[in-house]
Amino acid sequence: MDEQLQPAPPGVVASAAEWLSTVLAPAAGAPTGFAAAARLLHPARDADGHPVSWAHAADVTGHPLHPDSTWDDVAGTVHTRRTTHDDWPGGPPELGELGDTGWDALLNHLIRYSGSATRCLLALDEGLTWILGGGNDFYGDPFHVEAPQDPAFPAALFNSAPRLHAASREHLLLAAPLTTLPNLGRAWRYEDQRWYERHSPSLLWPLDRSWLVATDVDYDYTFLAGPRLLLDAVLADQRLEAQPQRTTPTA
Cα angle vertex 52, ends 25, 139, to 5°? Predict the structure, then answer.
């Protein structure tokens, strides 16, 4: 764990909760109170497991991609009482995670706009398995039993971090400079193998609240809201599949 990752000062919790309650839109909409906003679509997977865009999937399925399309719309998913069918031969986007390539691209833009030393607050849904550790299956395989994984953070950090209620969820609230974020995650082990699994926070914003990144654990897209200069750069980046979204600037 990066030592620059620290518990957020307890005094910021009430203010942060109040601010988030005003900018986080209900019903999965883009955050409000900013000059511009975008929805960053999490990559889907083709039949060989390679990441692909929603636009590519739409070309394959013949279902159009709109600014408010769900993955089910693009994949042509039909749910019945017993089965689920869709027209996409690959896998769906990952819920709650933008993926390494997209996360790195987004962080590059945030650092370029705000500066690498900018301190941020990050909220992590404390119910996420990668944070808590444990679990007795391996990537959803019910036939493979593995020793419980270690938690992401030392007990001292986990226990001392203040809790933040936002977006109907309970979060750990931590503070760190932007340069720490590429290293967020935890170590995994499988038999004799060890590797580091990276993750992104549920909510991320700088102390000046000039922008906000929001990713719900149940959504296959990430919202970014902030100044138009930042959003224009993100929307032009081919590493990200970003769609402009309607937002209501602060009066």
Answer: 80
Torsion of CA 184, 40, 109, 115, to 10 degrees: -60
pLDDT in tens, 148-172: 677 888 889 999 999 999 988 999 9
Please list the residues that pair with 164 across neighbouring strands.
171
Residue linked to tokens 């493979």: 144
Q: How far apart are CA 103 and CA 97, in angstroms?
A: 8
Is residue 160 domain-resident? yes
Q: How many CA atoms lie within 13 A of 121 on its CB side?
A: 26
Q: Is residue 1 part of a domain?
A: no
Residues 6+ apart with CB under 8 A from 177: 4, 116, 117, 118, 119, 120
Range of the domain at 229: 6-42+94-245
Helices 228-235 and 100-114: crossing angle in degrees, nearest 10, is 150
By C-alpha distance, which of 95, 102, 44, 41 is closest to 219? Answer: 95
Q: Is residue 55 part of a domain?
A: no
pTM flag (> 0.70): yes
| Residue 8 confidence (pLDDT) | 95
Number of domains in the chain: 1
Q: Report the 10 Å Cβ neighbour count for 156.
A: 9
Nearest to 245 by CA among 220, 225, 219, 221: 225
Is residue 109 a part of any domain in this protein?
Answer: yes
Q: How far apart are the C-alpha atoms of 9 and 175, rounded to whole Å?
A: 8
Q: How far apart are CA 70 and CA 48, in angstroms?
A: 23
What is the per-residue pLDDT across 14-34, written as a single tens digit (0 to 9) for each? Answer: 999 999 999 997 767 899 999
| CA pair distance 180, 18, nearest whole angstrom | 26
